[in-house]
Amino acid sequence: MAKQDKPAKKAKGPAIDIGIGEKDRKALAQGLSVLLADSYTLYLMTHNFHWNVTGPQFNGLHMMFMGQYTEQWNALDDIAERIRALGFPAPGTYRQFAGLATFSEVEGVPSADDMLRHLVRAQEATARTARALLPLADKADDQPTADIATQRLAVHEKTAWMLRSMLEH
Which residues form a coiled coil (predicted)? Predict the structure, then answer.
């Protein structure tokens, strides 16, 4: 699923007794960490494309990318704070994100259509990551994580559909 990274270390402090055992909390935190890495990488890709898009679709894509990266930015806190609520540190460096993300950054400045293609793949990858959290959340009876995964899955599937629609000429 994701590139390997060092295992998350348990946060220090009082014992956590929220009705989810440590093993399940750790698995959920690791899955959420991959979702956070995918989400941050997607945010950065979308913001980069917003800055660098050119061509006849400039205005429409520039505005659409701004809406997408803003939505993505706002989701990051919910994901990271859920990791913290489960008792683990959230990844927060480019190195950690690069090691956890299920897709890579884009080098250079692609054409507008290639930007759309990259974003479709990144949205779909992030949707798959969110979907992979659902069985873990179900097994642990963790509704807050399931809620986050479900919301993110819906956003990424819809956004991928909208981006794919722009490529149908």
Answer: none
